[in-house]
Amino acid sequence: MSASDAEGGLTPTGTITRTTDRRRVAVATVVGTTVEWYDFFIYAQAAGLVFAGLFFGPLNDDFPGLAQIISFVTVGISFLFRPLGAFLAGHFGDRVGRRPMLVLTLILMGAATTLVGFLPTYAQIGVAAPILLILLRVLQGISAGGEWGGAVLMAVEHAPKQRRGLFGAFPQIGVPIGLLLASGVNAIMALIAPGDAFIEWGWRVPFFLSIVLILVGYWVRRRVEESPVFEEIAARKEQVSAPVARLFARFTPLVLLAALVFVGNNAVGYMTTGGYIQGYATNPDGPLGFERGPVLCAVAASSVSWLVATFAAGVLSDRIGRRSTFVLGWIVQAVFVLTLFPLVNSGSIGLLALGLVLLGLGLGLTYGAQSSWYAELFPASVRYSGVSIAYAIGSILGGAFAPTIAQWIQTATGDSTNVMYYLLGVTLLSLVATLLLRDRRGIDLSPANEAEQERGIGVWQRG
């Protein structure tokens, strides 16, 4: 490696960024997204493990199983508010900068998560308990909707163009790391406070720990510099007054296709991140009845394979392209969707863990290149709005109610094979959407190149 490479490299705008600055951005994005998704996932796991009885128990009196379905519905409700977070963060991220939105969304997520840990239950304050729970979940959804776009743009827009996949993978690995932390902390609490103790107070501790993680994330994110692409936009005074309106006026098909690319990964991923597998495997009245601790450890193991595959996909996408990496990922994911429930239903915790670990490989290969591809799809002036809103819409169509749908299918048919068909269907849908978009690896991301960025986005277009 040359001395110039060691000291710095060209950003997409042509300015010099030191290697140390890029590394600081990489660390800040992975730490921040890890904290955000830890907060998001401990709620989803609690929804699968304890919220049904603590907040919605009376619903089972007339309709057995309804409390668990509604508990998963609250996981999905937050997704309906992700577009609001994406609209707000996208507007201000394209107007005033990426970094301020990253700090604000982090604080909002942490505050909402911590307050969940303090909530009284239905037995203590009645119907006010689930109402407050849902309100705090809504705040989590708003935060999640705005955070991801800023994190990936900070990473990708600071990166040299030949390594955007690598740098874009850093905020992506925050998701499996967040799942690993959430599952690990819950597994530890299941050991410290087993049985009724977990239901009485053990589940609250992971929510309280969010305070420490938020302080760390805030400190790290405050130390990073603003995106060089946005700095050039500001210097040229080319901020769009209404970026969201311009986005939909000119790029609606692109937003929808990019959203559909995310559907397959998000729906399948929420089998674990949304708490469905945890609830299915630990339900004492279900077909398996495993203890919470071993199941949570299996989920934690799957997050490791997801992390490794996510990082590998980012690196691979710099070599073979974003679209080719996704196509490979959809094939792998489809294969391991077909093996998931046969392994889960084997009655062996080891085979359940194997099924989840294999699924994590497919999830990583269909997630690692997403940030770099999304950033390269949208023009500079509406990029924050574009990536955030496409991600938010994809999450609604994909993961928002995936655990609820899976639970309903399982309850209605009594056969997890039908859940498998649902997951295979959304995987194939995303494969089709992937094939309809162009690979734009290495395109100049600066505002000076906006005209080229707007051309030939879909395979049906010229240019």
From TrEMBL:
Membrane-protein topology: Multi-pass membrane protein
Locations listed in the record: Cell membrane
Entry keyword annotation includes Hydrolase: no
TM region(s), chain numbering: 65-89, 101-125, 131-156, 177-195, 201-220, 254-273, 293-313, 325-343, 349-368, 389-409, 421-437
UniProt cross-references to Pfam families, sorted A to Z: MFS_1 (PF07690), Sugar_tr (PF00083)
Keywords: Cell membrane, Membrane, Transmembrane, Transmembrane helix, Transport
Ranges of residues in domain Major facilitator superfamily (MFS) profile: 25-442
NCBIfam families linked: LPXTG_anchor (TIGR01167)
Name of the protein described by the UniProt record: MFS transporter
Organism annotation: Microbacterium marinilacus
Highest classification ranks of the organism: Bacteria, Bacillati, Actinomycetota, Actinomycetes, Micrococcales
